């Protein structure tokens, strides 16, 4: 039986994550060498597997040269072989991820985010609906190393708590799993940073948009995608209103 695109995304993200765990366990001269090996080997695995499974599809990867053929392709896989390289290089941390998404005729149609250090992959195959929100202040996922000032200002405005963590995929999945209420990012990203997390978040019933409420668009000529909101749908209007210029 030919696997569905959802299953392919989940399987490839999981396989790349398993490889990264093997790479991480090796001895390296320093963290820089560990990061480079992880990026390169996971990238090669994903490209090889996609070439074997879907030779006619294009690929946009953080670690590969941008091939303009993707702009005229019907199907484009958007991948981040290792999201959160800093955390990957710190052996006591689990907040790094692998992203695999499929864009098809203008929309994200499948995606998976592997959290290899947790032994977990969340995907559009079977992601559960986000659990009900508990009482208390709103919780905003934020970068542990580069928290945007706008998120700190937003937290002050809303009386929200900031929850620091690494990878963009980990932050997005924290909303999917109900550990936080929103992931607000305004410090600049690329399509591979958010494509798979957004696909999974949508499958879980979450709101996804730009910070001005406009739709997220993928497979654009310039893959830079500067801002992002992933949140519980019941909080979207409140957050978008708070984020609106005054």
TrEMBL record:
Gene3D superfamilies: 3.40.190.80, Fructose-1,6-Bisphosphatase, subunit A, domain 1 (3.30.540.10). Its cofactor is Mg(2+). It catalyses: adenosine 3',5'-bisphosphate + H2O = AMP + phosphate. The keyword Heme does not apply. GO terms for molecular function: 3'(2'),5'-bisphosphate nucleotidase activity; metal ion binding. Mg(2+) binds at residues 62, 80, 82-83, 193. The keyword Secreted does not apply. PROSITE patterns: IMP_1 (PS00629). It comes from Modestobacter italicus (strain DSM 44449 / CECT 9708 / BC 501). It comes from the Bacteria. This is 3'(2'),5-bisphosphonucleoside 3'(2')-phosphohydrolase. Keywords: Magnesium, Metal-binding. One of its GO terms (biological process) is 3'-phosphoadenosine 5'-phosphosulfate metabolic process.
């Amino acid at each position: 039986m030919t696997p569905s695109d959802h299953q392919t995304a989940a399987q490839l993200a999981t396989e790349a994550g398993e490889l990264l765990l093997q790479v991480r366990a090796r001895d390296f001269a320093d963290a820089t060498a560990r990061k480079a090996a992880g990026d390169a080997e996971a990238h090669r695995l994903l490209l090889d597997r996609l070439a074997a499974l879907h030779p006619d599809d294009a690929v946009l990867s953080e670690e590969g040269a941008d091939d303009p053929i993707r702009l005229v392709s019907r199907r484009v896989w958007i991948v981040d072989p290792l999201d959160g390289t800093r955390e990957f290089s710190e052996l006591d941390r689990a907040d790094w991820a692998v992203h695999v998404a499929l864009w098809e005729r203008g929309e994200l149609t499948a995606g998976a985010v592997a959290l290899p250090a947790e032994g977990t992959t969340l995907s559009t195959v079977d992601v559960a609906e986000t659990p009900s929100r508990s009482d208390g202040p709103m919780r905003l996922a934020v970068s542990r190393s580069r928290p945007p000032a706008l998120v700190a200002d937003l937290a002050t405005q809303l009386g929200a708590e900031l929850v620091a963590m690494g990878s963009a995929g980990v932050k997005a999945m924290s909303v999917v799993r109900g550990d936080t209420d929103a992931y607000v990012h305004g410090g600049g990203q690329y399509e591979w940073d958010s494509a798979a997390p957004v696909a999974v978040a949508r499958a879980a019933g979450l709101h996804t948009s730009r910070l001005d409420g406009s739709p997220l668009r993928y497979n654009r000529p310039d893959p830079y995608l500067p801002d992002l909101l992933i949140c519980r749908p019941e909080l979207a209007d409140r957050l978008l209103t708070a984020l609106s210029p005054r």
